[in-house]
Design brief:
This protein has one domain. The longest helix is centred in the C-terminal third of the chain and has 18 residues. A nine-stranded antiparallel β-sheet has the order 2-3-4-5-6-7-1-8-9, sandwiched between helices. The chain contains five helices and nine strands. Helices cover 29% and strands 28% of the residues. With 205 residues, the protein is α+β, with helices and mostly antiparallel strands.
Length: 205
């Protein structure tokens, strides 16, 4: 039952990854995090950053909705003893946080620019430099594995090409080239990149 739920939850986004349409702009990445699973569960249930509604508890599964108190935004969270699934409401990006031996890992499926950008997320701190984490599948590379460092560079080349050749698309695109977590790691390494826009006061999903 557990794995059947897991497969159904990620099936739609995985289908996007396999799509030949590069406009899908989706990727799947896994990385180890510093936080412990019980602490993440406690934050989801008791944080003062959002309103928590427990919708259902059945057979070891708790279904929770967390809502932004200031914006019309929410995320759906499924909690098991050793695994958590977070699905954002607007974008339908997914985070799977799970126990792997003595460590805790996160798997993200969604747009590159959305990686760890939502306000309605528990604290997740990559244990190592996230630029060295592997992108396992993507609409950019298919099933070819690349580090996030290489993925970000190729994604930027594609975005610049669209800026130069498709004016209408450029006008609709975000001015930011990378998620904040990637900007921060580039800055630590001394790589010169334009600063990200300030997301303070913006909706979480």
């Amino acid at each position: 039952m557990f794995y059947r739920i897991n497969d159904e939850m990620f099936n739609e986004n995985l289908a996007i990854l396999k799509s030949p349409d590069r406009q899908a702009k989706c990727m799947r990445i896994q990385f180890e995090i510093k936080e412990k699973l019980p602490d993440i569960i406690s934050e989801i249930l008791h944080s003062d950053k959002w309103l928590t509604l427990v919708r259902d508890e059945n057979h070891g599964l708790r279904r929770v909705t967390i809502k932004d108190p200031y914006f019309d935004s929410e995320a759906s969270v499924d909690i098991w003893e050793h695994e958590i699934h977070v699905t954002t409401a607007w974008s339908n990006y997914t985070y799977r946080i799970y126990q792997k031996g003595n460590s805790v890992w996160c798997e993200y499926i969604g747009a590159y620019r959305g990686l760890l950008e939502q306000n309605l997320l528990p604290m997740m701190t990559p244990k190592e430099n996230i630029l060295d984490s592997e992108v396992l599948n993507s609409s950019l590379f298919g099933d070819r594995r690349e580090t996030l460092r290489n993925y970000s560079a190729e994604n930027l080349k594609l975005k610049k090409f669209r800026r130069d050749n498709f004016v209408a698309e450029y006008q609709l695109a975000s001015p930011r080239d990378h998620p904040k977590i990637v900007y921060d790691e580039f800055i630590k390494e001394g790589v010169l990149v334009p600063p990200p826009e300030n997301k303070t006061g913006k909706p979480g999903n």
